[in-house]
Amino acid sequence: MGKIVAIEGVDGAGKFTVSKSLKALIEDRGKTATIVSFPRYSETIAGQALGNFLSGKTYIPEDPKSIATLYAMDR
């Protein structure tokens, strides 16, 4: 049976680096692994909006519901 492993942390914490290392370890043991990352900054309109907001390129009202809606739309 498959497993889902969630690696969480703030931007720039090294989540993707850990994910790549874990994926390599799993594959070295003969299993398959896939990395899924959110937000998808370049793949969806909501992801692009989030990326621009987080990098300071675009202003989005800092209402928690507005930001949560963008994250939900990116799923």
In brief:
With 75 residues, the chain is mainly alpha-helical. 45% of the residues lie in helices and 0% in strands. The chain folds into two domains: 1-36; 38-75, no CATH class.
What's the number of domains?
Answer: 2
Provide mean pLDDT, rounded.
87
SS content category: mainly alpha
* Inertia-based shape: elongated
Radius of gyration of CA atoms, rounded to a whole number = 15 Å
Order of helices and strands: HHH
Distance between the termini: 24 Å
Number of strands: 0
Q: Bin the strand percentage.
A: under 5%
| Largest beta-sheet characterization | none
Uncertain regions spanning at least 5 consecutive residues: none
Number of helices: 3
Secondary structure: helix percent: 40-55%
Tell me the layout of helices and strands:
Layout: H1 15-28, H2 45-54, H3 64-73
Offer a few descriptive terms:
mainly alpha; 45% helix; 2 domains; 75 residues; single chain
Describe what this molecule looks like in 3D:
The chain has 75 residues and is mostly helical. It has two domains: 1-36; 38-75, no CATH class. It is 45% helix and 0% strand. The protein is built from three helices and no strands. Helix 2 (45-54) crosses helix 3 (64-73). It is elongated.
